[in-house]
Every structure is written in structure tokens, then in C-alpha cells.
Write a structure and sequence with these properties.
With about 190 residues, the protein is α/β, with parallel strands linked by helices. The protein folds into two domains: about 10-75, Arc Repressor Mutant, subunit A (Orthogonal Bundle), CATH 1.10.10; about 85-175, Glutaredoxin, CATH 3.40.30. The protein has helices spanning about 10-20, 35-45, 50-60, 65-75, 95, 100-110, 155-165, and strands spanning about 85-90, 125-130, 140-145, 145-150, 170-175. Helix 1 (about 10-20) runs antiparallel to helix 2 and helix 2 crosses helix 3 (about 50-60). The longest helix has 13 residues, at about 155-165. It is globular. About 25% of the residues are buried.
Amino acid sequence: MTDNAPFAFTHENLEQAKRIIARYPAGRQASAVLPLLDLAQRQNGGWLSRAAMEHVGGLIDMASIRVYEVATFYTMYNLKPIGRHHVRVCTTTPCQLRGAIAVVDACRTALAIELGETTADGSVTLAEVECLGACVNAPVVWIGDDYFEDVDPARMNAILAALRKGEAVVPGPQIERLNSAPDTGLTTLANTVR
């Protein structure tokens, strides 16, 4: 799909959009812009064309420029086509302190692309993002809708290889850690049921 191609929600997505808009009080439909942009992006192959943003604006009576302002502010919206897998590496200070730059370098080497580029086969787009809010499990990589935590170059290479082969990958901590518990194991509430 190109930036100039027409866009309209499918019947199913239009019904979903109506349900989303109905969550907001009369006169406040513009508050639905975030979930509607997400819905449009998912329908549009992972990115927002100008036509998609204008369609969303029309549904909620929001000026196109206001929709563009929202879409350009948040890193969760992509304003150009991306690969089937969008690999976003957090490089904020906590992740850097725990090896994020080595993870970025591993991605660049394994994929033979730079940050902001997509592999020639269209399988992976690589990006750098700011804080993903999972600092205790740094470094963190966001792929699709999932976080991969406690990633190091070897684990990142394994994840990328699996993605490119179409194999399932398990999100969450990539080490023996329960969610965000200390990587040394539980120190309190150790007898609780998991």
C-alpha cells in the first residue's frame, strides 16, 4: 500500500471503531484517536498512510493536522511501511548500562541493515526507541506487541533467526527470571503460589 492509496476501515474494523468511539462522551470523540490509529495501522500492514490518518480524523471530526500531530508524537505509530517484524531496541540509559548497544550491533550485523532500515526481503525493520518502561529487565526489545527482556547479543540473534524462519518466539524475560523479580530469585514472598 502506498501513501496515496485510498483507505477505509473494513466492515469489521468499522464496527470496532464505532465501539471504540462509543466509549467517549458526546463531544469528546477525538479522545478515541489513539486506539483508532492503532486499529488503522493494524489494518494497513503496520503503518499509517496519510489516507488512513485522514480517515480516522473524519470518523471523529478531528482536523487532519491534529491527527498527524498525534501520529508523529508517539513511537508506536509508523509513518512509513515496515517489515513483517518491527524490532525496536530501547537505548535509554538503563538499557545502555546493561548492554543495549551490543544488542543493537548484533541486530545490525545479523540483519545487515542500519537503524531505521528494513531488510531486503521485507521481513524485519530495525529501530531505536526511548524508554519502554521495563528498566529492571534491561535491555529490552519490543517486537510487534511483545517485550523481550534481559536480551543479550546471543539471545537477540536466536530471536531474529527464529522470526526470519517463521518460528514462534517466547516473549518476556529471556533469562531464568519470574516477570520482574530479581534475577537472583525471589527474596520476599518466596512461599507464594505462582
